[in-house]
Here is the input.
Amino acid sequence: MQYESIAQALEALDRTQKTEAAYNHAMGVLYLDAATAAPKGSYIGRGNTMEVLSRVIYDLSTSPERGELLSYLESHAQELDPVRVRQLEVIRKDYDRSHKIPAEEFVAYQVLLNDAGAVWEKAKNENDFPSFAPYLEKIVDYNRKFAGYFNPEMAPYDALLNEYEEGMNMVTLDAFFSQLRNAIVPLIEKISGKPPIDDSFLRRTYPVEQQRRLSDYLMKTLGLDRNYCGIAETEHPFTTNFNNKDVRITTHYYENSLASSMYSVIHEGGHALYELNADDQYNATVLSGGVSMGIHESQSRFYENIIGRSRPFIHAIFPSIKSFFPEQLQDVDEEMFYRAVNKAQPSLIRTESDELTYSLHIMVRYEIEKQLISGALSVSDVPARWNELYREYLGVEVPNDRQGCLQDSHWSGGSIGYFPSYALGSAYGAQMLCCMQQELGDIYADVAKGDLSRITGWLKAHIHKYASFKKPGVLFAEACGKFDPKYYTDYLTKKFTALYQLD
Amino acid sequence: MQYESIAQALEALDRTQKTEAAYNHAMGVLYLDAATAAPKGSYIGRGNTMEVLSRVIYDLSTSPERGELLSYLESHAQELDPVRVRQLEVIRKDYDRSHKIPAEEFVAYQVLLNDAGAVWEKAKNENDFPSFAPYLEKIVDYNRKFAGYFNPEMAPYDALLNEYEEGMNMVTLDAFFSQLRNAIVPLIEKISGKPPIDDSFLRRTYPVEQQRRLSDYLMKTLGLDRNYCGIAETEHPFTTNFNNKDVRITTHYYENSLASSMYSVIHEGGHALYELNADDQYNATVLSGGVSMGIHESQSRFYENIIGRSRPFIHAIFPSIKSFFPEQLQDVDEEMFYRAVNKAQPSLIRTESDELTYSLHIMVRYEIEKQLISGALSVSDVPARWNELYREYLGVEVPNDRQGCLQDSHWSGGSIGYFPSYALGSAYGAQMLCCMQQELGDIYADVAKGDLSRITGWLKAHIHKYASFKKPGVLFAEACGKFDPKYYTDYLTKKFTALYQLD
Here is the structure.
């Protein structure tokens, strides 16, 4: 159609964004329901719904009307405010990207992911990689093909990395990970010569009902407004947001682990704060929600580790933790608790690993993804390669696939190229801590009192409120200057040198 | 468009039904989420989504393409099989009906209901009818207006009754309810001269965690396949179904009431069995799901009362109930338990009322709805009228609106004309029991062994499997002959005469 005025076209732009937001909301709730409350067999009937809705979303984002609207408004870009310009940029990218994926492949892929989620969960529970392998194979094939559609000039894995963190590539990541390894591996070696920290009390019996109460307390301490933030239970913890007034986190309770759910709640709580603190103006537009996986993980891992595993935070919350579990923690004091939740020890499960060895878990996945996408590794060889890399990087033997290559939900959800964001995010967070301290002074004095308001206020002002308005690189640079992994390696070195008296 | 063949048109018919089923699924999950896991404030962001999706559903069901498709296939009706003919009939009714409601009213009404649900829940919790009144007023106005659209020749309340039970009207219901009152009131009077049954042990402390386990046990006893049937917790129990492989029931646990959640689970379980036993062929078509509210309630109330409150069923399940609550039921035997869950006593809360007085609760709502829709009663006078009718019909004083006119979620959900289905369903169920016994013999011998398979098998064969293929009147008549409320009054008279030794 022909637009009579910019105002009319902007109205159409609002309408199309609202429509798309509604579909995304519906799909999001269907996914959340599938992961939480839905009975296992419900995936059979969900297929049709996912197929129909993904088709509509695809049609919407590739429609000729949208193309015309984009062209019209782009030709008037100089008359638009920066928010509109950025909206156009994001919609254009999505439009061009969608036009590169044939409709039937897009829809078939959505249906595949719906099935793969159920199959993976069952495969994990039953330690049965072969039943998941055909699905992973198809997911890898689709991703390789999509990478070619997105950016045929890049190596396929670079194109996938770009989907999660714009501008990222294997050259940068290889260097980044090598810098991390050079800092982390010597620390681990030194630590292995020290007496091990006793964290056995974290694996006493912690009834799930009490752990649920602890989650409520932690969410309150983080400043999460329960009026807008829910919590549910899933196999693998995650955060999902429908708008800045409706964010959900999930966790998984294990009766014999206190730290597992506790730190997953703080981690997902960090994601949730990012979403809840976004400006209202971005709701129901393409600029709603966090801007990239790296920035998102910087927030989750900031709260989880830099705050949540800090000595002052443990000081603030330990009395409450003890009040939830007086018997289990009878013989434990806050220093013991602090040391236990920071015990550095090569292990099997990424989500339960310590802050220091965490990035090594990421590197395993990064290596496997690179090789899967390049074709150097076949899906059937993933378990063997996984176990080999765990041996090489972490020095541990993987006893089964359940605790090995089936542990994460990412691949079954179609996320290949996502994992590096966790390590990047950790590094971003360490640099944010420095900038924050330069501006606010001794933030850990606040943390010791359980008061995170100035910290969250700083993050809201520099990161959260912008949602997806600024590109990740710009957002980070305007908040913290040029990215430098040295902040992170320095932070780790300082923390673990003190903790283990490595000097 | 012009169709080249019947086959081509039928393909289009399948496609449009699949699409509509997908939207209904998405809307259903959004509602379920809103009632269960969603944080309270999430209704703010849900508004846009509901608005967009209801608009799409409306556009779909009123589209000129659908009109053309209907006309084409209707002109070839004699060449179609009965399932297709019935599909056309249902779609035609909906098409004509939708064309009578202006689009903006339909959408505004959906948005109103979304808000009203949250407002009602808050109003009920805070015993604050005035905060809900403006919403109820608008809902009544819309319903009166819609009634005129649906069938301008009927009295508005008759038109609404027709939405829930085709062919129903006030003349029939007035007679039906008067027949019930004539049987029930003398029984209640006689019972009031007898020593009251002691049911105080049902209000001991029953920890919610244990009640959840009891729910699992009851669902298993009912034969509900947990692979396809979930359970969640809501303010007001309900059942929702997305297809015959995905049905959810909800309940509400009260620590000081064992019977409340127990019988809500059996009631909703009856609804769920109806949905789960539908033939696969009806999935993703307009014939999926139960055919009317009256038939649906006949199933729920059959399992809840005719089975669930029978002496043989208590014999079968009491040992298990006692194993869940050995201390609380230490001094209780199965005969005491049977008598307690059947104690007939005029009370305040419909969902917790006994089998005998239940229909009187329905009559209160029926009278108020009649008067609200006719305009004889204004919304602000509802609490006073409610309390008056409870005094007149049940002889009880209503202490507050929370336990009075705010107790049910139906009106906030837009359901006016629904309540009579509960009483009708109870009466249908009693007649089904007779027919079933004529065919199967002593079904209560099965019940005493906890084996409901023959009973559910009979209901599946005569009711469940047909989903919405047969009209409610035909479905009932083919299963049980002509409807006669006398089966129900006889059943009640016999049961309560024996229980209270009224001879």
